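Need the bound structure for pyridoxal-5'-phosphate, inputs here:
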Amino acid sequence: MSDISNSINQAIKSVVGLGPVGLHEPSFKGNEAKYLLECLESTFVSSVGKFVDRFESEICNFTGSKFAVAAVNGTSALHIALLLSGVKKDHEVLIPSLSFVASANAVTYCGAVPHFVDVDEKTLGICPKLLSEYLKNISMQKNGNCINIETGRIISSIVPMHTFGHAVEMEGIIKIANDYNLSLVEDAAESLGSFYHGKHTGTLGIAGALSFNGNKTITTGGGGAIITNDKEIASKAKHITTTAKVPHRWSFNHDEVGFNYRMPNINAALGCAQLEGISEILKNKRTLFNRYKKVFDDIDGVDLFQEKNNTQSNYWLQTLILDESKSSYRDDILKNTNDSGYQTRPIWDLLHTLKPYKNCPTAPLKNSESLEKRIINIPSSTYNNS
Ligand SMILES: *Cc1c(COP(=O)(O)O)cnc(C)c1O
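Answer from helper R.:
Posting the output first, comments after.
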């Protein structure tokens, strides 16, 4: 075992104790069972019920968003957010290659094409500086649209993703969106509880998507939400996620092709209980970060990724970044930590290398390619830490 592998193993052990310890496990310490039972007893377990309304209003309270529409998962929330922000068939949408596959899939569901761009090593999210240089070279403006000179397609939107809960440098992204006539949709699936200059991630553009999958900061089993400050987008989102049924006491009139994407009441019941505990969860995640920080500060060749100035991270997944000179040890570290019962994992394969996406337009991705080889997520649950 290499020295660095050994040190990292020892460091994790000193913080989380003896394994096995998972990467990220949910905790149900509050009213989860109570609300689920209440939901069963009400018989309203499906897509209408008081927990859905309550969950949406509590998401608004927590994020400061004016509206929230709960959906079956984060991917469907992002799909709807993109559709309502004006993404159409054969458009291109700028997304980071360094992301989870759902970001690209949601674009594809719209009939649009992902256009992969590079990230900033400081934030792990889209780099505004590299992007504006890139767009200057590859695009032109025509009739108020941003056109990709190479493909002739309209580039209609930009979708920053707040990796592992760390906010993208949104000021630069907002400027690019304005300068190039792009709608701004945030993939905030990983960043519930993360803020940029005091504003909740997902609220800085036209719409944002949250995820409440089992491995996220809080969970509804499976679930997501579209958040927006735009009343019309919110009411359209609610309409098309509920099969576009025109409200009526008995008739089945649907005025467009809708989706069955609405979050069931039983999932929202779980969500209401989870949200009651979110400040405790966020506090514990920060404590875990600080404990890791102490031990990783003493290990050469590796950094624990830390929130940047003027941002507040939810520290969803704790993240190690190996120095360039140590990247060849990544697999050895993954093997040794997993063998010792500490679930660690590399970051996702870059999206532009995946079979369905390898022919999509792609900017130079120097930072993404370097980071992909050097990132390791380490156990990030909060249960063994409170
Ligand atoms: C989890 C996640 C999603 C999708 O969420 P699901 O609820 O799993 O559909 C989208 N984008 C990113 C970056 C994610 O991490």
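Comments: The CA atoms of residues 97 and 351 lie 5 Å apart. The two ends are 32 Å apart (CA to CA).
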